[in-house]
Every structure is written in structure tokens, then in C-alpha cells.
Amino acid sequence: AAAAAAATVGSNSSIMAADLMKLYYFPYKGAAELARYIFAVAEVQYEDVRIARDTWSQEKRKMPFTSIPVLEVNGRKYSETLAICRFLATRFNLHGSTPDDNFFVDMITEFIVSDVIKLLTTVHSEKDPIRK
What's this model's pTM, rounded to 2 decimal places? Predict the structure, then answer.
């Protein structure tokens, strides 16, 4: 049994109702937050599995590339934040309908993941309360 907290969130059971989706990440915002937003906007249920830091060393070997976030769809695990976000956006018809729209969605996604998440991580890990 995984030592993790999990919650089922979302409400739209008609979209991909047959798919069981789980999103694995630590018990805080970060690299998985954009995927959580995509689930929320699409109103799709998924299991939000929060892995405690003290159990991560045991869970790590179960994850592709030994990192998280990880999206599990019907028992198959996928990793990498941007790949997960693109997959979900496409799966839930939230990606663009033209190449220009797709480019814009990708541009915003990469900005959020690469710049905003790095900033939040830096602030979160800062020890000096004045700099934080």
C-alpha cells in the first residue's frame, strides 16, 4: 500500500468516464498544479495522490524516470509536467483547434511551468525570511 494521501476531485464523469486517472505529487502546489487546474477546468474526476516526503524514497522507484509529477491512466504511468499537461489538454478538448491556437496554449503552458514554478520553488525553499 502506498503511503500517500489521496482524494477524488472533479465532477464531470461524462468525459472519459471509463478512464481511471491518478495524479501523483508531493502534498503541496508545484509542478503538478497546472495539471490540477486542467482537471478542474475540464471538470473531470481524478485521484489526487499526495506522496509524503518521508515515503518518497520508497515510492520513487515506482515512478517513470524516478520523478514526479506522474499521471497514471488506467494503470499506465506517464511523467514529465509539460507532456502530462499537453496530454490532458488534448484529451479534454482544451487544446487549440488550429496550429496557432496550439502554439499559444503551449507558450502559456511552458511559461507557467518553466518560469512561475521555478519562482515558486525558489521562494518556497528560501531559508532567509527577509528574502522570502
Answer: 0.74
